[in-house]
Amino acid sequence: MMPRYSKEGFVPKISQILIVVLVFVGLTALFYALGSRLQRLVLGAKQSVASTAGRTNFLLLGVPGEAYSGQDLTDTLIFFSLDQSSGESWLLSLPRDIWIAAMRAKLNTVYHYAEKNQPGSGLAESKKVVGEILGQPIHYAVLLDFGGFRQVIDTLGGVPVDVERAFDDYRYPIPGKENDECSGDSNYQCRYEHLHFEKGLQLMDGERALKYVRSRFAEGEEGTDFARSRRQQQIITAIRKKLLSWETLRDGKRLRLLYEVFNQSIKTDVPPSAYFGLAQLALQFKTANIKTAGLEDLLVNPPASTQYDFQWVLMPRTDWSEIHRMVVKRLTN
């Protein structure tokens, strides 16, 4: 009997929601930044938000960006389905190690190889492959470069964050130092920096906020997943509140800057004619309405063999149809 999936790889629930919120507020900013004339054209367009049986399905992809190795490997893959009438949504994280037999490669490499073989085809190929895994149509794909996270916050002028307790993290990874031998240091200290956060209300720029939400090895209670999730929720709330505030929405210059940031950080096949519909959904979007699920009970890690090029991979415990049935059940209940 093959072992069930247990390797760490699923994005924590609150991190998934952070990605969804960033995508929705980004599309909202794009719409408002179009300007009044282009907005009227968009509003007058006949094309609406695509859907099947009243649901719009998205594939959300996250890449680490140029500062990290594997800059176009989609280590974050999320299927996000939204019911247009009720506003309820369902989110499913896909592990990057799912084996794609036709490609003899893992799921997180689909975008990379598609772009390498035919530039501009990465989103379409990713939608196709994930659609086959889940047995669902995928209407839109969005790829988010996490480097844009910092720029969004900086463009907003920073976000206020009330740090509940002071903490230190002595093992925060430094981008680009992952393989540094540190001159023989067995503890590899040169790969990490020391983070310190004081208790109390403070204005964080993009770099500081990113470290605040990504810190994983803080000493004491702040080193728990629960504390990290709470910090991420703080940033989610702060970004959404400031981005959708009247102060921001009436600031044409800032909206244009946000448009440029999102334009550089987000690749999508969402047409401009759908921006208004998605912006409306974003304005009424509430993270509390998101239901989440994972595939861990339906996947197994087969023994290393030539069949998988001796890689650590994941395969369905029976066949793909079991996953299809689970998805249908979740979407219809």
From TrEMBL:
<dbReference type="Pfam" id="PF03816">
    <property type="entry name" value="LytR_cpsA_psr"/>
</dbReference>
<keyword id="KW-0472">Membrane</keyword>
<keyword id="KW-1133">Transmembrane helix</keyword>
<feature type="domain" description="Cell envelope-related transcriptional attenuator">
    <location>
        <begin position="74"/>
        <end position="243"/>
    </location>
</feature>
<feature type="transmembrane region" description="Helical">
    <location>
        <begin position="14"/>
        <end position="34"/>
    </location>
</feature>
<protein>
    <recommendedName>
        <fullName>Cell envelope-related transcriptional attenuator domain-containing protein</fullName>
    </recommendedName>
</protein>
<dbReference type="InterPro" id="IPR004474">
    <property type="entry name" value="LytR_CpsA_psr"/>
</dbReference>
<comment type="similarity">
    <text>Belongs to the LytR/CpsA/Psr (LCP) family.</text>
</comment>
<keyword id="KW-0812">Transmembrane</keyword>
<dbReference type="InterPro" id="IPR050922">
    <property type="entry name" value="LytR/CpsA/Psr_CW_biosynth"/>
</dbReference>
